[in-house]
Amino acid sequence: MRLLEAKNLSVTYPNGEKALDQFDLTVDHGEVVLVAGGTGSGKSTLAQRLLNVIPNQVKAICEGEILFSDESIENIPTHHLSKQIQLILQNPEAMLFALNVEGNIHFGLENHCLDKATIKNKTQEVLSLMRLDSLRKRSPMELSGGEQQAAAIASVLALAPSLYILDEPLTYLDLSGKKRLLEHLKQLKAMGKSILILEHRLDLAQEIADRIVVLKDGKKVLDTKPNEISSKELQENLGLRTSASFSFGTTEKEIKETKSVLKFKDLSFSYPSDHKIETPILKNISLDIFEQERIALLGNNGSGKSTLATCAIGLDKPQKGSIILKEKQLEKYTTVERTKEIGLMFQKPESQLFCQSVWKELFFGGKNLNIAEEELHERVDTEAKELGLSHLMEKHPATLSRGEMRRLALASLLIMQSSILILDEPTIGQDYFNLDKIGNRLLEANRSGTTLILITHDQDFAKQLATRTILIEKGEIKENAHLRTL
Amino acid sequence: MPISGLFKTYESDTFLHKLDPRTKLICLMIISIFAVLLATVGQLICLFFGVFALHLCAKIPLTRTKYLYLSYPFIFLLVALGQGLFFWGSQVKPLFTIITPEGFLFGWDIPLLSAWLKIFPGEVVFYKEGFFYGLVQALRTATLLTAGLTLALTTHPIQILYALRKFRLPFELCFLISMSLRFIPQIMDEIRENFRAQKARGFTLKQLSLKDKLLATSQICDTLILRWIQGVRDMALAIDLRGFRLHPTRTYIEEHFFQKRDQVVLGISFIFLILIIVIH
Fold first, then answer.
1. Claim to verify: residue A264 and residue A234 sit in the same structural domain
2. H or E segment and range at residue A185
3. Does one domain contain both A224 and A85?
4. Identity of the residue in B61, B157, B223 whose CB atom sits nearest the CB atom of A356
5. CA of B207: which chain A residue's CA is closest?
6. What was the pLDDT predicted at A485?
7. For position B73, what pLDDT does the model report?
8. A132 with A101: CB under 8 angstroms?
9. Ranges in chain A, pLDDT < 70
10. Cβ-Cβ contacts under 8 Å, A313 against chain B
């Protein structure tokens, strides 16, 4: 039985950009549809159009018709549709507006006038499901990216609508979080709920999908069953992430233990707390990183990976232990000296971008390092071209897509040619084509002497690029193995 | 500690923490009335130390309160000394003269000052009445700051929100206040994160002149504003999606009831208030 039917949907933004073009979509009761598409294919526009956010709140010229349970939903305000349709936004932080995790779940249930006992039961149910029990009183700002995403998902799951729309729901989740979410979606499907997943990654969501619809430049280019198309075809022709491997080299897996360039000695870190007993984020970390290595730092959300990175570049100061950067204590470096040696791409690159245009952003680091004007121009041109940013040079960084922001942050680091690069989640928001570009560029930098440390939940990318993996759990190193021995 | 941490409620089980947020809000209002009604330095010193004693009862760690304590000398210096210099009235008596019309600074002959005063004649005098008037204002400010911060640090913003709702404020307005409470620390953390990002790319404010420091700081403003606008737009959508104002009424999961300790505290506060009004 049909739940949602969208006919000939077209959306044209005031700047003339046609984000959707004669797009048709159907979703039946109990059906899981995976709408796949690369960066800028129109996935988020589709989600907002289905909920009348476009044109009610975002101005655009809209054509076509949307039927929900055989009735037109044209002109119905979004908050009325929320009884039947729920959307999990791409940016989980925006969905967490209440003062704590529990408050965010309560908010929707209170608005829907459920009684107190039901609210409490449903809240407990989703908190347990997303493993957020211990974080229920935490402010959203104190959560890691993955924990924020889990909290945003929990607040929508509690409302139990007929149709769930999930816009890139797996982005920040660690592997166990992804598996738990997919397991729950399977349960919802069994209960007759319909699910629309918007993703550029097919490998994980593919297993629960009944149908795959592929969007390219706002047009439907494919509507098929998952087993009727090969992963390689989807990847190479449409830029979608699948389990198929990347084009960049996997052969260079030799173990290089030349000389140590970064050494953590018995490092412990905890954030200042009101209580005498502080919760340690890092516990006695001892680790040697060798020249030209490619390391993948893995671990669950909140395990301390990002904190280790901010300690490594001197932004956070450990309470115990020391960091030796190229045989010299880290704190003895000046800011410029340190930046020449080590660079960090933040987990949320939007907070790393602060200039008024892409080109100013690219020049920023190089100018601080006093790189000669001509040389700097050359590096900026090269990196912008390599990472597909050349056409965006005059744009304000805040107006870029998530994937573009991440590539810009990476390019601005590569321009500085620091000898060690720490990249926190470099693969988020990237389609196959861009990820392949990033992989190739990182390998090239590595060949010219850069040591790479990748913090990632993207195991496929890590496996293909890294020579060594380090697993961190609850602030401690649990595994430290060369890929050959893993 | 991130700056936002300073604004986070300090969780504890002291008597102050256990009071109903409405009681605390009413007490804050009564303290404000006291601060306005009491007009002598002696009375205000008593009020200040009374409020400070209450503040100490909350056992808030120094990491949270050090900025409050550091603000006291600045308040007294700026307000009391400032009023001492600039107070004006027909009956005012100079306590001492800082610069004489002849150009003497505390009795020292400064030739440059003499030359200046030949062009712009006058004197700089410190007035007793101004100093005491400033002291009164400084004591009032310090008292209210201490009381307000104690309320903020011992009461979760959600509870303040419920208290406001119980005072019959519209939910929309309460929600707006809660959003502001949610955003202020986030904005502060984002600014901090931007400075960290600049540092990570070889830039430090330390190396710049004051003018360049201001310029560098102002340059990140438009990026931050643009990002906040985008964040607020996304958040408005998320609020809409969760059925905000879907029905004329809504359920409230948390309810608060006055306890005996609240009744006692409110009783004592009102007795004091009536006494002071009667005396005045």
1. no
2. helix A175-190
3. yes
4. B223
5. A335
6. 41
7. 92
8. yes
9. 204, 243-257, 273-278, 483-486
10. 200
Q: What is the DSSP letter of A33?
A: E
Interface residue B40 vs chain A (CB under 8 A) = no
CB B203 within 8 A of CB A335: yes
Which of A238, A268, A303 delimits the end of a domain?
A: A238
| Interface ipTM above 0.85 | no
- Is A74 within 8 Å of A66 (Cβ atoms)? yes
DSSP A303: S
Task: Encode burial over B35-55: b for 16+ CB neighbours within 10 A, e otherwise.
Answer: beebeeeebbeebbeebbebb
List of chain B residues with pLDDT < 70: 1-8, 90, 158, 182, 207
**Least CB-CB distance to A354: which of B204, B223, B250?**
B223
β-bridge partners, A474: none
- Nearest chain B Cα distance for residue A172, angstroms: 18
Report pLDDT digits (tens) over B57-111.
Answer: 999 888 788 888 999 999 998 888 888 888 877 677 788 888 888 888 888 888 8
Contact across the interface for A107 and B245, Cβ inside 8 Å: no
User: For chain A, how many structural domains are there in total?
Assistant: 2
User: How far does A80 lie from chain B, in Å, by closest CA?
Assistant: 6
**Collapsing DSSP states into helix, strand and coil, what is residue A6?**
strand
pLDDT score recorded for residue A98: 81
Q: Do B250 and A313 touch (CB under 8 A)?
A: no
Q: Say how far apart CA B147 and CA B142 lie, in whole Å.
A: 9
* A74 Cα to chain B: minimum distance (Å): 16
Give a yes or no: residue A247 inside a domain.
Answer: no
Global pTM? 0.76
* Residue A456, domain extent: 260-482
Tell me the CATH number at A223: 3.40.50.300
- Considering CB atoms only, which of B202, B220, B243 is closest to A108? B243
Asked whether the beta carbons of residue B251 and residue A87 sit closer than 8 angstroms, the reply is no
**3-state DSSP assignment of residue A221:** strand
Q: Would A243 be classed as within a structural domain?
A: no
Given A335, A412, A413, which is nearest B199 (Cβ)? A335
Subunit contact A91:B5, Cβ cutoff 8 A: no
Q: Looking at the structure, tell me whether residues A28 and A166 fall in a common domain.
A: yes
Is residue A405 domain-resident?
yes
pLDDT at A463 (0 to 100): 85
State the count of interchain CB pairs (< 8 A) between A and B: 171
* Inter-chain residue contact B243 with A115, CB threshold 8 Å: no
- Asked if omega into B248 is within 30° of 0 (cis), the reply is no
Q: Given this model, what pLDDT does residue B98 score?
A: 87
Predicted pLDDT of residue A486:
39
- In this structure, the answer to whether residues A211 and A316 fall within a common structural domain is no
Q: How is residue A178 annotated by DSSP?
A: H
Residue A379 and residue A266 share a domain? yes
Q: What is the pLDDT of residues A449-479, one digit of tens each?
A: 999 999 998 888 888 889 899 999 989 999 8
Residues of chain A neighbouring B237 (CB-CB closer than 8 A): 48, 53, 57, 78, 89, 94
